[in-house]
Amino acid sequence: MIDIKVAKSAGFCFGVDRAVKMVYNELEKGTKVATLGPIIHNQDVVNDMKNKGARVIESVDEILPDETVVIRSHGVGKDVYEKIKEKNCRMLDATCPFVSRIHKIVSEKSAEGYTIMIAGDESHPEVQGIVGHCSQNYIVFKDNVELKHFFEKNQNFFGKKLAFVAQTTYNIIVWKKCMDIIPKGCPDIVIFDTICNATDTRQSDAAELAKSSDCMIVVGGKHSSNTVKLYEVCSRYCKTYHIENADELSFLQLPNAVKIGITAGASTPAYIIKEVQNKMAENETIITNPDEEVFDEAAIDKSFKKIHTGEKVTGIVQTVNDAEISVDLGTKHTGYVKLDDLTDDPSKKPSDIVSVGDEIELIVVKVNDNEGTAQLSKKKVDEQAGYDKVVAAKENGEILEGTVSRVVNKGAIVNYLGVRVFIPASQSGLPRGAELEQLNKQKVEFKIIEVDEDARKKRAVGSIKAVRDAQKEEAKAKFWETAEVGATYVGKVKSLTSFGAFVDLGGIDGMVHISELSWKRIKHPSEVVSVGDTLEVYIKDLKPEENRISLGFRKAEDNPWQIFLDNYKVGDVVKAKVVSITSFGAFAQIIDGVDGLIHISQIADQKVENVKDILSVGDEVDVKIIDIDPESKRISISMRALLSDADSEEDAE
Prior knowledge:
CATH topology of the domain at 97-195: Cobalt-precorrin-4 Transmethylase, domain 1
Strand content: 25-35%
């Protein structure tokens, strides 16, 4: 019976998935779409998009006036963006964020005078796009052999400023070989890790599957760089075939394989992978060739070196899962490191700490010769290094970062690289009486204020408060250096009093007086804001000698009086709502925040003895604006004037 397995990370990556969805979303809305080159290196997907109305164009000159142009996930150079802008057409940028990061790096480093060294295929659209963001010199090399040859012919290049980047889908193994050629510790050479994590994971997963398979099927476009890299990776371990879809299976002469692995490039949709898997499972299309030699990946380990508990060993990470990692020690033993022996940080998984192919130092915890296994610990190695760092951090006042593992009586525990750091409640940075539990499982910054003299105990005392106090002082100093009246800040409401709200501007507090919170009259700040609210405020007054900052929150454009003056004039007839009644008249609201006075003499065309006989609070009445006093902010309105106007119209008739 044939055992068919699909690699864990086969198919669409984040960037490709994002680009494909962007195009399909536009097509569903009826948008006329033109992709600048095939959106991805997969003809099935490209053909489907064409059938739904998308056009594939090769240059900006081909864009039609009513089309939306889509920049594919590979990205383009600066000049293309400029040409599209000149065309004045709608554009969707589907450039993969990881590719955009490379564009930013090469653009910045070019401006700083660096020669950009690009590892990749010079004819690949992603590399061409990267080149298009280099404003200075650049060199593209395809592998370590070409890089070595270049440096041998250009010895003077080692004296120049060089910045190394790689195509996101570049072969990880080849990249590591390239890094071995570059001089170490040279200040004029900077290296950026730009190979996409998805590429790394996909190649690692494919390699692991290939090691345990008789043959591999790699599914993806023939022009897809990352798919070709997968083919190269798998070919190192077993017979490998590169196909674009399930139809090509019929033409393969597969070996007499029992275990067959399937992986796919980043441009291969899930449905094509499923079609290949299903068609192979049917057995009808699989033509086996018994005469062909079956690839046997299993190697006999000839090393019988013994290892002992407590011994320090070096191993190569072979597999990584959520519970543990396996390590090749170069002996007859298979090494295992459980999550608890990798780290004390509960928020981390093994994949956050190590990757397949990493070389790491370990301590042997337990050996089982009968089963050929060894239990190992990375944490014990880290503990000594961690203790040394903690001691050094105390001496130089360095700020460390760690995760609170648990809250204990009168404090909290942070495990920093194997060192137990106790944070007393008084050094927690929390207000007196606050619940320490809120720190549990949180990442915190702290300083070491005491170290246990017994190095074997690996204990220390830390202070979160010391870091926060220093940060506040730094923030205050920075604030006073740049603060000026009128400057705008975004801060959080820290506390409320009867006379205003205190706002944290980032280490320093300012106060918004109650009169500055609203254009309306309010009795308490809580009518407008709450503790924790984010406010955009501006500085009204500064008194550095008193460490006082007066803030404003009201915006001039929201001033009801100004809104009234901009929209109303004497003679306008408006509706007004009676809000209060006095012995001499009634106040009626014209707009929110602006009231006018209807004097008792302006209520009716006859003498009124008592305002309440005619008007009540809440009544909505028609009035005429008869006077506006901008300086005293007073408005006179009249009901009587409307009655007089009506009489005049009747007389005229």
